[in-house]
């Protein structure tokens, strides 16, 4: 049985790749291929990544959550823009500071041109059919190629259901899907000119294991001065959950020089459920950290005040999606 051309959510989850990492790469490859064929190479990458991020944020974090797939597929370009605005409105309600940090991914929604929105509904349908909603909402299903270098005992714990017990985000945190797409959209020469290097998930996972070889206490700060899109935080959070610790009990500070990278960190902090003690900044954290700290504090105060004065970030006719990690849906 299909609805608007796709099977029900439960069947789509069953059909998804067993490896969350393979799933993430397949979605990023599909998104990049569509954008290259229909929008011309790496142009408008903020729109390409921002659309993916907005759809990812609207995905329920539980497999028994509402299925937005059949609702998204029939939308035209203008209706999709409305739905994306609704998704960012929910983020604005939940965490205005991180929404402000993510502004490079959604600011274009305030006054999109016809060129900006042309074909976006088809792009969104491609992402939905590639399994983006299932990737962001599925329960943990770890296989041997997801269990990076663990001992036989650790593998036994995983297959016995430890990850399912500790977290429902293991699939979403198996790789950095936003970082994968940005990397594909940046040419080799561009990455060379900025010295940018995307850390592969396997390498980041091993670093996450090493990080927890030392004692860590709740409330400790994890600071990444050159975070990129946050994949090291992803690995650390995954390791925490594997050992039965919730990342929300720690503090996180993710910084990068590139505004789009920093914006992705803000979205990833939600996709990976890092909690509400997350700071995202964009600047030189090595030469002048005090100035950066002051700028972040001012941004947080400004965003909180603005959210209280303007509860809706973008006018929209679409009801915002329910966010499962909130005790009540946004009003």
Question: Secondary-structure blueprint of this entry?
Answer:
Elements: H1 9-15, H2 20-40, H3 45-57, H4 69-72, H5 77-94, H6 96-101, H7 103-106, H8 114-117, H9 120-129, H10 132-137, H11 152-159, H12 162-166, H13 177-185, H14 188-194, H15 201-211, E1 221-224, H16 231-242, E2 251-256, H17 259-271, E3 278-282, H18 289-309
Parallel strand pairs: 1-2, 2-3
Notes on the structure:
This protein has 331 residues and is mainly alpha-helical. The chain contains 18 helices and three strands. Strands 1-2-3 form a three-stranded parallel beta sheet, sandwiched between helices. The two termini are 34 Å apart. The relative contact order is 0.16. The C terminus is likely disordered.
Features:
three-stranded parallel sheet, 54% helix, mainly alpha, single chain, 331 residues
Q: Report mean pLDDT, rounded to a whole number.
A: 79
Secondary structure tally, helices:
18
Oligomer: single chain
Biggest sheet statistics: 3 strands, parallel
Tell me the fraction of residues in β-strands, as a range.
Answer: under 5%
Low-confidence spans: 138-168, 322-331
What is the H-and-E element order? HHHHHHHHHHHHHHHEHEHEH
Q: What percent of residues adopt helix (DSSP H or I)? A: 40-55%
What is the rounded Rg?
A: 19 Å
Q: Count all strands and give the number.
A: 3
Shape: globular
CA-CA gap between termini: 34 Å
Sequence of strands across the biggest β-sheet: 1-2-3
Q: Which structural category do the helix and sheet elements fall into? A: mainly alpha
């Amino acid at each position: 049985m299909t609805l608007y051309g796709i099977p029900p959510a439960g069947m789509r989850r069953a059909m998804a790749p067993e490896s969350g990492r393979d799933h993430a790469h397949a979605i990023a490859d599909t998104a990049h291929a569509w954008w290259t064929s229909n929008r011309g190479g790496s142009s408008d990458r903020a729109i390409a990544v921002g659309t993916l991020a907005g759809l990812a944020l609207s995905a329920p974090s539980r497999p028994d959550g509402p299925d937005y797939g059949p609702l998204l597929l029939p939308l035209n370009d203008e209706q999709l823009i409305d739905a994306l605005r609704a998704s960012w409105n929910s983020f604005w309600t939940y965490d205005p500071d991180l929404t402000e940090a993510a502004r490079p991914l959604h600011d274009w929604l305030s006054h999109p041109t016809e060129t900006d929105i042309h074909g976006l509904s088809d792009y969104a349908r491609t992402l939905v059919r590639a399994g983006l909603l299932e990737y962001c909402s599925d329960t943990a299903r770890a296989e041997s190629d997801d269990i990076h270098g663990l001992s036989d005992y650790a593998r036994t714990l995983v297959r016995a259901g430890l990850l399912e017990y500790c977290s429902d985000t293991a699939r979403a945190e198996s790789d950095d899907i936003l970082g994968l797409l940005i990397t594909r959209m940046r040419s080799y020469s561009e990455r060379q000119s900025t010295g940018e290097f995307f850390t592969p998930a396997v390498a980041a996972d091993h670093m996450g294991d090493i990080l927890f070889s030392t004692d860590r206490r709740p409330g400790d700060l994890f600071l990444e001065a050159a975070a990129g899109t946050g994949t090291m935080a992803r690995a650390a959070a995954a390791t925490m959950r594997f050992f039965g610790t919730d990342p929300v009990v720690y503090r996180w500070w993710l910084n990068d020089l590139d505004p789009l990278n920093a914006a992705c960190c803000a979205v990833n902090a939600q996709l990976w459920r890092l909690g509400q003690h997350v700071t995202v900044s964009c600047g030189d954290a090595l030469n002048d950290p005090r100035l950066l700290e002051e700028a972040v504090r001012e941004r947080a105060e400004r965003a909180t005040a603005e959210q209280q004065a303007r509860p809706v970030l973008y006018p929209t006719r679409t009801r915002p999606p329910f966010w499962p990690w909130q005790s009540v849906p946004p009003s």
